[in-house]
């Protein structure tokens, strides 16, 4: 009963627009007081902040966030879009496909979904509409392309899941590589299909010299991606060390693109501190809430109750994935992971499923939540940046959501699509 009451309190705080980090912390603290008493709760609260935030692996988060801010400040995403547009512009819907490819390229060196969507909206939506694209296709493609940063390494969500689930950060990052590329290919296919149905024209072709120049424009970001992901894959560095290399390389990108001003560097540092601080509060809050759940014994009770069901494990997993899909409509993706993984992961492992694969499925489903109402953060960002009505963005995202769900179904049905890269790392 107390778990239900605390869950309702948490939902009420979120509906009242209390920041998710503080809502989790308050709900967990109230639950601990209800079970253990005030003195015991305060004693635990004195220990948790240090134990929760003192892990070495957590330092990867601010470093990758710093890397994302440096890449964003460098203007590399604009260069990626222009290069991709030159390379695929002749294909029908080529500018939309270029926006998706630019989103994938930015994801590979940033891990910031909303930043990717906002910048793509500024750089590509107006160009697509000028060329004759329907506003729905233009904004739907941009909002969906931004979600790729949630999956393609170095994804902040993947790192957060790995820390919450206590899996290898490096292996979890690598597990997102194939699903992320598969998602990018699917979004490109959706743009092409919609273009064939008359929602987008074909653009003019480019000369070989222009294509060679475009390939050269992709080189700096490509080198940075190889430095970060390649170092982790070949075991040269840990994920945290790779993040430090990536941040330094992103600063180099700012130098290459002549954007390494004190103003840009200062803004990047301030943005990094702000984002990292909020994530750390979420982590502390999640540990407080997790301690409350442990004291309430709800997780063993759930595992035991489900174990008594005479139902195939695949149906139970489908139910779990469906719950995550619904949660994604209403809650922040990081909060979903922090609140639910301590409960669902023991159940998933008891059913015999791989925790890294489960994380990939959870985050793929979380991607869908970034473009669906009522929360749909990427849709809001795209609408604001492109000055197109929000309902147009949501309607434009529908075909892309269908494509995303197809990818979720593929990864759910064929786990090796996610697991073979980290297995190669081990083998």
Number of strands: 0
| Largest sheet features | none
Quickly count the domains: 1
- Poorly predicted residue ranges: none
End-to-end separation in angstroms reads: 47 Å
Rg (C-alpha, Å): 22 Å
Residues in helices, as a percent range:
over 70%
Q: Count every helix, treating DSSP H or I runs of 4 or more residues as helices.
A: 21
Coarse shape: globular
What is the arithmetic mean of pLDDT?
Answer: 86
Q: Could you characterize what this model shows?
A:
The protein is mainly alpha-helical. The chain has one domain. It is 81% helix and 0% strand. It is built from 21 helices and no strands. It has helices at residues 2-15, 20-36, 38-53, 60-74, 76-88, 94-110, 113-130, 135-146, 156-165, 169-175, 177-199, 208-233, 239-256, 262-296, 298-307, 313-330, 333-350, 355-369, 377-386, 390-413, 416-426. The longest helix is centred in the middle third of the chain and has 35 residues, at 262-296. The model has no long low-confidence stretch (mean pLDDT 86).
What layout of secondary structure does this protein have?
Elements: H1 2-15, H2 20-36, H3 38-53, H4 60-74, H5 76-88, H6 94-110, H7 113-130, H8 135-146, H9 156-165, H10 169-175, H11 177-199, H12 208-233, H13 239-256, H14 262-296, H15 298-307, H16 313-330, H17 333-350, H18 355-369, H19 377-386, H20 390-413, H21 416-426
Helix pairs in contact: 1-2, 2-3, 2-14, 3-14, 4-13, 4-14, 5-6, 5-12, 6-7, 6-8, 6-11, 6-12, 7-8, 7-19, 8-11, 8-19, 8-20, 9-10, 9-17, 9-18, 10-21, 11-20, 12-13, 14-17, 15-17, 16-17, 16-18, 17-18, 18-20, 19-20
């Amino acid at each position: 009963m107390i778990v239900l009451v605390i869950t309702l309190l948490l939902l009420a705080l979120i509906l009242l627009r209390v920041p998710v980090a503080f809502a989790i912390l308050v709900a967990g603290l109230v639950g601990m007081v209800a079970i253990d008493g005030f003195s015991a709760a305060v004693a635990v609260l004195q220990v948790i902040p240090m134990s929760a935030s003192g892990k070495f692996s957590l330092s990867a988060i601010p470093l990758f966030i710093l890397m994302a801010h440096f890449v964003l400040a460098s203007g590399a995403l604009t260069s990626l879009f222009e290069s991709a547009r030159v390379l695929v512009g002749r294909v029908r819907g080529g500018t939309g496909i270029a926006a998706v490819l630019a989103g994938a390229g930015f994801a590979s060196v940033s891990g910031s979904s909303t930043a990717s969507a906002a910048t793509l909206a500024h750089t590509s939506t107006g160009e697509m509409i000028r060329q004759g694209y329907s506003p729905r296709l233009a904004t739907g493609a941009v909002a969906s392309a931004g979600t790729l940063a949630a999956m393609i390494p170095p994804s902040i969500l993947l790192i957060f899941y790995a820390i919450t689930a206590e899996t290898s950060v490096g292996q979890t990052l690598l597990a997102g590589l194939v699903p992320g590329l598969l998602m990018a290919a699917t979004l490109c296919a959706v743009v092409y299909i919609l273009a064939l149905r008359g929602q987008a024209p074909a653009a003019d072709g480019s000369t070989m010299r222009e294509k060679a120049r475009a390939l050269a424009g992709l080189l700096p970001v490509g080198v940075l991606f190889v430095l970060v992901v390649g170092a982790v894959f070949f075991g040269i560095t840990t994920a945290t060390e790779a993040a430090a290399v990536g941040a330094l390389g992103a600063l180099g990108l700012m130098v290459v693109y002549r954007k390494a001003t004190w103003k840009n560097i200062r803004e990047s540092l301030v943005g990094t501190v702000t984002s990292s601080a909020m994530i750390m509060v979420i982590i502390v809050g999640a540990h407080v809430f997790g301690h409350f759940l442990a004291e309430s014994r709800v997780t063993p009770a759930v595992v035991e109750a489900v174990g008594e069901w005479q139902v195939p494990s695949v149906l139970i997993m489908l139910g779990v994935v469906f719950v995550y899909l619904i949660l994604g409509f209403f809650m922040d993706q990081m909060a979903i992971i922090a609140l639910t993984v301590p409960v669902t992961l023991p159940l998933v492992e008891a059913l015999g499923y791989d925790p890294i694969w489960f994380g990939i499925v959870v985050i793929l489903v979380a991607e869908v939540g970034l473009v669906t109402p009522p929360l749909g953060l990427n849709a809001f960002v795209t609408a604001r940046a492109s000055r197109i009505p929000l309902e147009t963005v949501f309607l434009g995202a529908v075909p892309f959501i269908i494509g995303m769900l197809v990818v979720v179904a593929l990864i759910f049905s064929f786990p090796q699509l996610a697991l073979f890269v980290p297995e190669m790392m081990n083998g």
